[in-house]
Amino acid sequence: MITRVDEVNGRLQALRAAGFKVCLDDFGAGANSFHYLRSFEVDYVKIDGAFGSAASGNPRDARLLRSIAEFCRETGIATIGEKIESEAQAVEFERLGLTHGQGYHFGKPLAHPQATPLEQAGAAQLLARPNVKRRGVVTSGG
What we know:
- The protein is an alpha/beta fold and 142 residues long.
- The chain has six helices and five strands.
- It has a five-stranded mixed β-sheet.
- The longest helix has 16 residues, at 59-74.
């Protein structure tokens, strides 16, 4: 648990001021997730894979995840759903309000030094964008 929250947030804001993006990772995995979301100004919240999977099969968890996504949207924080393995999961996370997705459905993680951090983590562009495709998928026509 982080005890010197103000000091940590100050350092995070210095990084953001220098042009870095800050992500609160594994949200929902620990008891301090909401405390950190309240305390730190971040650019992204990455939803823990187990929490996201639970929301797919449990209406109560789905409502909670939708509320988190809504809060993040209203405060200018993008949301990333972890461990998206299928189109159905991608559609469900989009329905719940998440803005980004990460997982093998979109492609394997990249080790390319010129890739953005989200690309290196295997994250897709906005889920709602119709041109988002799984890496390596070839389509014909148009």
